[in-house]
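Translate structure to sequence.
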């Protein structure tokens, strides 16, 4: 199967730099991306999470003021998705993290990016190649036979 093509960075409602946060400031992925039960998905940070730091950092920024208003009003920010696993695929972020995989293995060098675009190959071929290399199961039912 051909490798999935990289896509341009989608426009986000508020500018956000993973380079500043994950790179320069060394904030761990899980600080902003929670992995709620049962562990399938990593959450996308919402304004109250951002405001844990930004109530005192860069408060004069128009983008941070927009975050503060969202946190105060309870209105969620609708971030544009960069990655999405199809509904017919069983994929658990928690299982992959517990097995010792690192976020950048699938998502690319996020800590170097000012804008996030799809870089990692999350196609079936990309996943199967990773499973082959790591000697993980890759029979059809392992990813397609389970129910969430």
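Result:
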């Amino acid at each position: 199967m051909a490798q999935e093509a990289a896509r341009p960075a989608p426009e986000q409602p508020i500018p956000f730099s993973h380079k500043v946060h994950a790179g320069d400031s060394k904030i761990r992925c899980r600080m902003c991306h929670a992995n709620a039960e049962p562990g399938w998905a990593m959450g996308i940070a919402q304004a109250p999470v951002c405001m844990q730091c930004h109530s005192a950092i860069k408060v004069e920024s128009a983008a941070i003021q927009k975050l503060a208003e969202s946190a105060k009003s309870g209105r969620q920010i609708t971030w544009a998705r960069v990655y999405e696993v199809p509904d017919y695929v069983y994929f658990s972020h928690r299982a992959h993290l517990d097995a010792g995989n690192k976020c950048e293995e699938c998502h690319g060098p996020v800590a170097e990016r000012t804008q996030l675009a799809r870089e990692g190959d999350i196609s079936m071929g990309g996943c199967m190649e990773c499973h082959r290399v790591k000697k993980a199961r890759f029979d059809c039912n392992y990813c397609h036979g389970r129910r969430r």
